């Protein structure tokens, strides 16, 4: 006989799986990021988003036991919303910017954006390249970095993507606003220029819980796994920013 505690546990688990397993379609929201540099110094340059592009073939969705929802920019809206998030965050920054400083132009490429989810877990990992230039198009800084997020499916797919997008904006803003200092010391949560560091602790298997577990204390087929090809996110091709910007302008 199942004890009262086990019954309550299974009841709670069934409710969690019922509400989170359905999930949402993965729509994202416009984000306004507040820079720490503004709060600490009050003197920052004006930022301008010159370009934000998604590389062809740069998105992938893995769904296991769930609806095929949430692939980045599948309907064309995610990239637009990310642009709006950059602009909204920059507008807030620019209200407090030192107008004597020359504006900085930001160029961003989304190389890879992986979303993977089951009825028990949801992860997202992105690879982003970007550079910052002055008004004469001189490259002041560039890098390629990775951003990640992983949550139990007690949230929406869109919320996981929102967290990734926020961290992308945060890293780019904080490093752009601190070009005169050692911006290698700037750390933004769940981002890194090292791929192995960003996937550390990630399981390469996406776990799905069988509904049978709700009917029995143990089930031979209660848990199954789908392999996640995380290495796909590691876009390593060299980007010639000088040539790219020459073509753009």
Question: Could you walk me through the main structural features you see in this protein, from its secondary elements to its overall organization?
Answer:
The structure is a single chain. This protein is an alpha/beta fold. The protein has a single domain (4-248), classed as ABC-type transport auxiliary lipoprotein component (Rossmann fold). It has 6 helices and 8 strands. It has helices at 4-22, 36-41, 77-95, 157-176, 195-198, 241-248, and strands at residues 47-54, 59-64, 104-118, 121-133, 139-152, 191-192, 205-209, 223-227. The strands form 2 sheets. Strands 1, 2, 3, 4, 5 and 6 form a 6-stranded mixed beta sheet that branches. Helix 3 (77-95) links the parallel strand 2 (59-64) and strand 3 (104-118). Helix 3 (77-95) crosses helix 4. The longest helix is centred in the C-terminal third of the chain and has 20 residues, at 157-176. The termini are far apart.
Output the CATH topology: Rossmann fold
Number of strands: 8
Class from helix and strand fractions: alpha/beta
Radius of gyration: 21 Å
Low-confidence runs: 1-23, 214-222
Largest sheet: 6 strands, mixed
End-to-end separation in angstroms reads 73 Å
Report the CATH superfamily: ABC-type transport auxiliary lipoprotein component
How would you concisely characterize the structure shown here?
With 249 residues, the chain is of the alpha/beta class. It has six helices and eight strands. Strands 1, 2, 3, 4, 5 and 6 form a six-stranded mixed beta sheet that branches.
């Amino acid at each position: 006989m199942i004890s009262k505690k086990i019954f309550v546990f299974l009841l709670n688990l069934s409710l969690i799986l019922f509400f989170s397993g359905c999930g949402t379609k993965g729509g994202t929201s416009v984000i306004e990021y507040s820079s720490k540099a503004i709060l600490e110094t009050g003197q920052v340059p004006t930022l301008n988003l010159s370009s934000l592009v998604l590389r062809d073939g740069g998105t992938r969705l893995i769904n296991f036991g769930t609806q095929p929802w949430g692939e980045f920019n599948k309907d064309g809206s995610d990239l637009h919303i990310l642009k709006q998030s950059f602009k909204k965050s920059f507008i807030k920054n620019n209200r407090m910017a030192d107008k004597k400083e020359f504006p900085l132009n930001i160029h961003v490429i989304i190389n890879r954006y992986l979303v993977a989810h089951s009825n028990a877990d949801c992860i997202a990992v992105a690879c982003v390249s970007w550079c910052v230039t002055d008004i004469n198009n001189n490259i002041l800084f560039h890098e390629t970095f990775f951003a990640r997020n992983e949550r139990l499916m007690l949230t929406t797919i869109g919320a996981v993507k929102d967290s990734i997008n926020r961290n992308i904006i945060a890293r780019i803003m904080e490093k752009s606003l601190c070009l005169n200092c050692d911006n290698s010391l700037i750390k933004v949560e769940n981002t890194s220029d090292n791929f192995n560091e960003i996937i550390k602790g990630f399981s390469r298997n996406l776990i799905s819980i069988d509904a049978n577990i709700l009917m029995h204390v143990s089930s031979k087929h209660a848990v199954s796994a789908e392999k996640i090809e995380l290495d796909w996110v590691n876009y390593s091709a060299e980007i010639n920013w000088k040539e790219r910007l020459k073509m753009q302008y």
